[in-house]
Structure prediction request, 134 residues.
Amino acid sequence: MQILLTVSLSLFGLLFLSLFAYLLFGKYRWKGEATEHHAQLLAERKQHAVPARAVLIGRGRPEGGLFNRQANVDLHLRIMREGQEPYEAVTSWLVDLKALSRLQIKAELAVRVDTEDPRAVYPDEPWARIPLEE
Prediction:
């Protein structure tokens, strides 16, 4: 009787773990497809972007970074494009942890600005990128 109970519990546990794994990997597969689609849209938008300079006028506290060696940082930038008045924009970047020290107030950053949406500001620095998930 004890053996039957042990086998039943083992089968139930195996079934539960299989279902959990299916749901977990199914979620990640869907998330990967959504991320891939978002990356494609982002690449298309970056084609319309033009180089500009930005001055960092404020930033949030870096978040994350333990496993992927990048932190998500909210940035408040003053954008300066040739032939246009400076304006302010807010964005979030994923920044390499080793490069966080570059994000000091008044730091000048290379950016690309979407010509169709000037508030869309992309990093033009090798140590930063736009997060694929918003």
Q: What stands out?
A: The beta strands are 49-59, 70-80, 87-96, 108-114, 121-123, 128-129. Residues 23-32 have pLDDT under 50 and may be disordered. The chain has two domains: 1-47, 50-129. The chain is about 35% helix and 35% strand.
